[in-house]
Structures are given as C-alpha cells and as structure tokens.
Please model this.
Amino acid sequence: MTTTLPLPYRIATAIAPHVASLASASARDVLRARRESAAALAGWATACRDRSRPLVVVHAASAGELRQAEPVIRRLRQRQPEWQLVATYFSPSALLVARQLEVDVTGYFPWDTVAGVTAFLEALEPTAMVWCKHDLWPAAAIAARSRGVRLGMIAATVRPGSRRLRWPARTLLEPAYATLGLVGAVSEEDASALSRLGVAPDRIEIAGDPRYDAVLERLDGNTQPPERASTLVAGSTWAADEDVLLAAFRQVLEQRPSSRLVLVPHRPSPSGWKRIRRRAAALGLPEPVLPEDAAPEDALLVSQEVGSLAFDYAQGTIAYVGGGYRRGGLHSVLEPAALGRPVLAGPEARDSRDARLLNQAEALEYLPRRRGAAVLEAWWVNWARDTAWRTRAGRAARRVVEEGQGAADRCATLIERLVET
Model:
C-alpha cells in the first residue's frame, strides 16, 4: 500500500493529527474523541463481532451525507436483519445523526494512515465498505481491497468543476476509485465523471439520490404552512447570505410590516449572534431574539439550535437556503422543497443538481451576485402577496422531491448485490 500512494500524501496524513492538535482546544477535543471512538469500535468488535455474519460499514463525511444514507441503512436493517451494520463519519457534525441510526455501532472513521486504517480493518473485519456520496479515502480503500473487502459507493456524485477531476487530486484518487466494485451514481453526468476518476464503467449504475427518500420520510406530516404569509426562513446561512437577507428584510418590512425573518446560521456561535445583532442595528431592524423566546410581534428570530433545520423551514411560507454565495457551499434545497416551500438561493446554487431541477420546475429562484438584496426583496414580497403563485411554486417543489423517490431501495439492492458477490 505504501508504494501505491505518493510520499507527500503519506506524510501529510501522518502529520495531520499533530497539526490539528495545535489548532485549538476544540480541535484537541475532537482528536481525543477520535481516539476514544477507535477504542470503542475495537471494544465492540471484541465483544460483539460475529464473524459468521456479514458486516457492512457505511461511511459518510458529515451530518448531511449520513442523513442521506439513513433510508438506505433503514432498508438494509429491515431486509437483512442478520447483517451487522456499522456507520462511520469523519466530521463531528455527524454525531447527532449517528445516534439516530438503526445500526449496531457508530464511530469516527480513522485518519487515512497505514496504522489507523490497519487497526480499523483488523478490529472489524468488514465484509463490505460503502461510501456515501464521496469522502473516499485512498489508503483505506486500497488497504481494504487488498484484504478482500468488497467496496462500493452510493449517491455518488461529482460536482461540475470539482477539483477531484483535476491534477493532482485525480492522480491521487484514481487508484482508490478503481477499487470500487459497484457504484450507484446519482445521474448520467455523475456516471461519466466517475469513470474519468477511475471507476470501471461496467461497475456504475444510475441509482439516483437517496436524499429524496430521506427528506420525505423525515418530514412526513409537516407540510402545513404557518398563518403568517410573509415569514421567510433562511437556513444554514453564512455571513454573505445574512448581509443580503437583512438588507432585503429592511425593505420588505416597509411594504409588509407583519413580515418575519428567521435566520438559522450554518454554525451558530456567540460571535455570529453579535455580528447579526450589529448588522441589524445598523440597518434599523428590530432586535433579534431566540425562536423559543419570541413573542408574536417579534420580527427577527435567530436560532442557535443545531440539528433541527429541516423542521425549522416549516415555520415559514418561503425558504432561503444558505451557502449559495460560496463555491460548493450550498446546503440542501430538498428539505424546504419537501415541505412545499418555494426556495431562494445565491448564485452558486446553479452548480447544484437539486437546485437546477427545482429551478426548471419554477420552484426555486437564483439571486444575482450583485443587487441580491433587491431581487430577494422582490421575490419575497411577490410570493407573500400572491398566495396562488406561492402555492403553485411550493407544490412544484414538492413534486420534484416526490419524483426523486426510490433511490434508497435501489441503493440498498446494490449493497446487497455487493455483499453477495
């Protein structure tokens, strides 16, 4: 394995934990959690691993990807009760989601080093490992394949212009992608890109995106709009989004004083709260309040909760999805769409397949990079005033999500075939 991967990569992955330990106290906490997780996984394997039963590891980078894999895991648990299932993740953001999964054990995926990967594989002895969407680690994939572990990927996608398609990432990743035995691509475009990354074309199938199943199953029964027609919920926002939203909100309030803006920052923090408060004051906007403390007359709400965004969208009649002013940073547009809400997003949303489908259905509108606040104001006011127009857009959004159903079943079947090969 060490002769396959470039020396700079092996050096970088070896020193990464040590560099991270110098970054901050929170980074050191995560490193400690990783060590504890490795010990816990090994302990579970010693006490509970039944070598006579298949064990499948499903890996996702963070909370969103793990939520994407959730309906697939649920189907595997129902259809293959004799299997042992392990869910792993790399980002601490996935901890809350991991606790809700129907698996035998969860934990951090190891750093992509010889020692970390070897310890992980020797402890669990997996039958198969399946990556969700991406986050394919070269050393882990190559080491697992050399041990006879069957490797696959579901919800596989490659963003247009992805760095994975260019040197040096492509050169590094090609041997890893070549190890994959079965891949469920989201679309034909993704299948083509995956073959360029090294996956054998005859191992790629178009299976769709299980995120559509995930959001519908999670949000079932939460589609009724609130009474206040002018409420916009902005989810997973960054500073660039918030600047546009607050500037637009000032103008909206002049036309519709009963309007409300609910901000759900991507990373809630005291510093972020202070920034929003300062910006709101500079614009002459009302003082922000926490949703749990809000009175009916409060206009600007700023959530500090983590993990409830999908349900937060139900508070509004219009949704704004954050990250569209960042390259590759758009959050999921499917959650508000599944609730039947028309959606607004920044200019980089054009890179998102989900956003493009919603836009084609006239259920999502892109904001421009310049004069975004003015365009946002116009859409906000028009959708608030015209109930029929807003309702049509919301129903179109819901239809797009419903038409994407079925991928979870196809992905579960793909994993079953992978294990049986």
